[in-house]
Amino acid sequence: MLKQADSIHWHYSCITGCKLYGVHVTDQKQNIRILILEQDTEFRNSLSRLLRRRGFDVFQTAAFEETGEYGKKRQPALILFGFEKPTSENLEKVRGLMTRFPATPIILITTFDRNELGDDIKNRAHIHILNKPVKKDHLIQTLESLTLHNARD
């Protein structure tokens, strides 16, 4: 149950012509912005709920194209990108995120091995890989350590 004091704001965004919508939810306890890019709606919503409960400012989308629009308005402190297979399309999306957000940590949530990534991706300091299934405590610990580390820089 949402309380008025939680300062929850909903923002629906969509690039012209797209059919997938991003949902932006804020709980102004921490103001640490996290961008979730995940095709699986159920998993994406679960991640978003978990992070909101922890006080993170969350923008979630299934559409890679929306990340650019979001980035023009707000700089995320961290990006969660979930994908199953290291297809050339998904690897190009990772490279696109690295270009759009060069100093932002990117956590790849996936089922494949690190060796299946290109060298430019796996050797990047800001890329972190969590294998599915991801334990909630491990995810939160990783997020908090990365966002606290970036806040000090």
Automatic annotation (TrEMBL):
It holds the Pfam family Response_reg. The keyword Transmembrane helix does not apply. One of its GO terms (biological process) is phosphorelay signal transduction system. SUPFAM superfamilies: CheY-like. Keywords: Phosphoprotein. Residues 33-147 form the Response regulatory domain. This is Response regulator. It comes from Caldithrix abyssi.
